């Protein structure tokens, strides 16, 4: 029995042609509907069809919106959280920079009072015309209870020499005992080998300031019949003999009288002096460099 011949499948070219025809028809139909919609009156049949279609599809639009809303909210939350974290990191960085700048400014401001005092020292009425101040940072401090020297960042290249007196913004610190081109060693006022001719600014009494018993400063060589009271200011006495000039110019504040005692066995008053300069905590000092060479 002879079988019928199978129907052949459409060729690829034919399928492609059919798809193109369908696309062209849909495009033409869409253009036709758009043209009719724009040109037809607002209350025409086409508009009624559109309204009916919109009403029929409205529940599906609402359902789609409600289904998509949680995902939209989740996206907005994640996006907002990412932006908030980025903004937080930016603010933290700015805060860190602000704090660092504030600390730096406070560190600089901490030196302002001392520098202002040094400037006043340079321009004050008691500053001798024959001296100029070389401001310097303190770069090393006494290394032990029996050490009474410190190192400053100024030396012979700045005019500092052995014998140059050194002050802080508060008062006398000591004298240079060793100088190199860029640094100098200053022996402090409380060193046992330091002696400074001084006077009581309130009473006009003369004496010598040096370290006494117990490591305290005393104003020595003050006769018992002279009057000295606690609170009196002690300053350098300067040169009293032109043939033997003093190392310290007149008028540098040394300290304040803290106690006055009298002993029957002692030939002089026992005058204790509290130094104005905090010798154990110095950040900057000024070396008083003479403008004229000494003879």
Low-confidence stretches: 123-127
Can you give the helix content as a percent range?
25-40%
What is the N-to-C succession of helices and strands?
A: HHHEEEEEEEEEEEE
**Corresponding CATH architecture of the largest domain:** Beta Barrel
Rg for CA atoms: 48 Å
For the secondary structure, the number of strands is 12
The level 1 CATH classification of the largest domain is Mainly Beta
Q: N- to C-terminal separation?
A: 149 Å
What is the mean predicted local confidence, pLDDT?
79
Largest sheet: 6 strands, antiparallel, barrel
CATH superfamily assignment of the largest domain?
Rod shape-determining protein MreC, domain 1
User: How many domains make up the coordinates?
Assistant: 2
Counted by DSSP, the helix tally is 3
Q: Please report which band the strand proportion falls in: under 5%, 5-15%, 15-25%, 25-35%, 35-45% or over 45%.
A: 15-25%
The structural class is alpha+beta
General shape: rod-shaped
* Largest sheet: spatial strand order: 1-2-5-4-3-12
User: What is the CATH topology classification name of the largest domain?
Assistant: Thrombin, subunit H
């Amino acid at each position: 029995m002879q079988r019928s011949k199978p129907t052949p499948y459409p060729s690829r070219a034919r399928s492609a042609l059919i798809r193109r025809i369908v696309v062209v028809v849909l495009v033409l139909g869409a253009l036709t509907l758009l043209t009719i919609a724009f040109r037809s009156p607002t209350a025409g049949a086409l508009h009624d069809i559109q309204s009916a279609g919109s009403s029929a599809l409205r529940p599906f639009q609402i359902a789609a919106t409600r289904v998509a809303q949680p995902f939209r909210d989740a996206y907005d939350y994640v996006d907002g959280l990412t932006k908030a974290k980025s903004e937080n990191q930016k603010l933290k960085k700015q805060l860190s920079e602000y704090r660092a700048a504030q600390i730096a400014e406070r560190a600089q401001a901490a030196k302002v009072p001392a520098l202002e005092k040094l400037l006043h020292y340079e321009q004050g009425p008691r500053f001798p015309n024959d001296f100029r101040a070389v401001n310097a940072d303190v770069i090393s401090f006494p290394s032990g209870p029996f050490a009474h020297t410190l190192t400053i960042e100024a030396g012979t290249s700045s005019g500092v020499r052995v014998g140059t007196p050194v002050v802080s913004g508060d008062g006398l610190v000591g004298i240079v005992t060793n100088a190199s081109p860029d640094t100098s060693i200053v022996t402090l006022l409380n060193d046992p080998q330091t002696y400074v001719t001084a006077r009581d600014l309130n009473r006009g009494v003369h004496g010598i300031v040096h370290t006494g018993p117990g490591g305290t400063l005393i104003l020595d060589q003050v006769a018992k019949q002279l009057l000295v009271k606690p609170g009196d200011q002690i300053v350098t006495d300067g040169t009293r003999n032109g043939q033997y000039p003093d190392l310290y110019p007149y008028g540098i504040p040394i300290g304040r009288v803290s106690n006055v005692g009298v002993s029957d066995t002692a030939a002089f008053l026992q005058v204790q002096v509290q130094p104005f300069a905090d010798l154990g905590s110095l950040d900057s000092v000024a070396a008083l460099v003479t403008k004229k060479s000494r003879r």
